[in-house]
Amino acid sequence: MTTAEKHEFPMARTCPFAPPPAYEEIREEEPVSRVRLPDGGWAWVVSRHEDVRTVLNDRRFSADRQHPDFPQLVKGEAASRRPDEERLLIAMDAPEHGPARKAVLGEFTVRRLEALRPRIQEIVDGQIDALLAGPNPGDLVEALSLPVPSLVICEMLGVPYADHEFFQEHTVKVVKQSTPPEERWAAMGAIQGYMADLVAEKEKNPPDDLLGRQIVKLRADGTYRRTALAGMGVLLLVAGHETTANMISLSTMAFLRNPEQLAMIKADPGNTLNAVEEMLRYFTIIDVATARLCVEDIEVGGQLIRAGEGALALG
Amino acid sequence: MLTEPELFDQSEDDATIIVLNEKPEGELVEKAREAVHVCPSQALSLEE
To answer: Which residues of B touch A108 (CB under 8 A)?
Structure first.
């Protein structure tokens, strides 16, 4: 059975705070359905929770973005493929993925993040002070949501203070929807170049920050490569920036719209952790969790997906 | 680890969770139950 593509991907949101309404239609009527991609190809979009788990966990689906058949969500994305030795963590499958993931996981332990907490507080307080001192009304996204994750990532990676402004200016350009595509690519290029220089500088005398510790660790394992680590730095930045920024904006809006919830947090700040967990669940900050390439025939939600076909897992 | 430092630790090396007390008693049982419930990777289980 082959069905025609009823939908084009990516789909537009009608409400900025909710996933595109067509997702619901797909989930109700044809939970695994074909969609047309911007480059003229097509892929299966997978919309139910259980099916999404299968696509993300089953080894018959590959994360190999370098593969020519891998579904491309952005036109021209294929042209930006990286050489094999610079393969990013998100493009790896087992058995390569496990050790690469393990190498950086130690940087995100509860203990390490607790140690970072006072510095994060300082960054947040500083941005809020600036927002309050600035023009009224202020722009929450510009003043708080975008700079906070960028500055925290600076802190983690060990970006020198003098470069924070450069770093922030370019990261904001990359994530802002209104940035024209050429400017976005230029900003991305500037960040990649900066990261490569930063890693090269830290090689001389590796400091006690994420990049420095990775240099020491990977050298000891005999797997250190400058371009790969610079790629990891950019990946951590991209993965952590827009997602966190959007969560800050959406959560603030949710509290303003639901003052009784805000009152609960104010009365007992101990509720904050629960509220954060709940908002992460409630807001879909990414439309598409990720894409995969099927490498061996598999049935998902009653639909046969063949080797060589792409799948998009909805968020 | 986040819910109960008496029950869990976390490896500095690869961030995996280390169970410190496999047979929690008293009020730690409730903490263990909560940890099983909230564990993001659903890697914990409790036999009663």
So the answer is: 15
* CB of A217 closer than 8 Å to CB of B12: no
Q: How many CB atoms lie within 10 A of CB A161?
A: 9
| Residue entry with tokens 């705070």 | A17
ipTM: 0.75
Q: Are B15 and A111 an interchain contact pair (Cβ–Cβ within 8 Å)?
A: no
Q: Do B14 and A105 touch (CB under 8 A)?
A: yes
Residue B20 has pLDDT above 60, yes or no: yes
Give buried/exposed letters for A272-303 (b at 16+ CB in 10 A, else e): eeebeeebeeebeeebbebbbbbbeebebbeb
CB within 8 A of A190, min separation 6: which ones? A166, A170
**A20 in Cβ contact with A8 (< 8 Å):** no
Contact A139, A242 (CB under 8 A): no
Predicted TM-score of the model (pTM): 0.84
CA A246 to each of CA A6, A30, A183, A280: distance values in angstroms, whole numbers, following the listed order:
30, 30, 21, 11
Q: How far apart are CA A106 and CA A234, in angstroms?
A: 18
In a mutational test of the A interface, the residue from B3, B13, B20 whose CB has the highest number of chain A CBs within 10 Å is B13
Token pair, residue B31, equals: 């903490």
